[in-house]
Write a structure and sequence with these properties.
- The chain is α+β, with helices and mostly antiparallel strands and 145 residues long.
- The chain has a single domain, classed as Nuclear Transport Factor 2, Chain: A.
- The protein has 3 helices and 6 strands.
- It has a 6-stranded mixed beta sheet.
- Strand 3 and strand 4 form a beta hairpin.
- It is globular.
- It starts with a helix and ends with a strand.
- 23% of the residues are buried.
Length: 145
């Protein structure tokens, strides 16, 4: 693997890490917003075998951030929620120099300030595009275990 491909993979892994950190702890979602391509999508499947009709999808940065704000409003994530994302077992594959896919496992912990409890786990199925701002998520599918 070339040095540039290694650097690209590290950049993608950093986007995954920043996504979790910003979802959990940042008051300002501006940096979270910039991790997505302008026309990016964020989909939460209802179950491992869910169809698109059983899923919730947000398209575009404004809709994605709006959904994150709603999760914060209801205490599902964000500052004060005592929720933490743990992202592991990351595999990145490049389709072209400017298009990549990753699969990562996640665990979502509640009560992170006390005795953490696993609230959810599954896989992130992400597609990344490289643009002027670097690597960004163009599609995120959250697939429960």
């Amino acid at each position: 693997m070339s040095d540039s491909r290694l650097a690209d993979e590290l950049s993608i892994r950093n986007v995954l890490a920043k996504m979790a950190q910003l979802a959990d702890a940042e008051d300002d979602l501006a940096a979270y917003r910039e991790l997505f391509a302008e026309d990016g999508s964020w989909t939460l499947r209802a179950s491992p075998s869910a169809t698109s009709q059983d899923s919730v999808t947000h398209v575009g940065r404004d809709a994605i951030v709006g959904a994150a704000l709603e999760r914060r409003r209801t205490g599902g994530q964000g500052p004060g929620s005592n929720v933490m994302h743990d992202v592991t077992t990351i595999a990145v594959e490049f389709e072209t120099d400017d298009l990549a896919h990753s699969i990562a496992y996640f665990k979502l912990f509640s009560h992170a300030n006390e005795t953490p409890q696993v609230r959810a786990m599954g896989r992130y199925l992400d597609t990344f595009v490289r643009g002027a701002a670097g690597w960004q998520i163009s599609e995120r599918i959250i697939a429960p275990a």
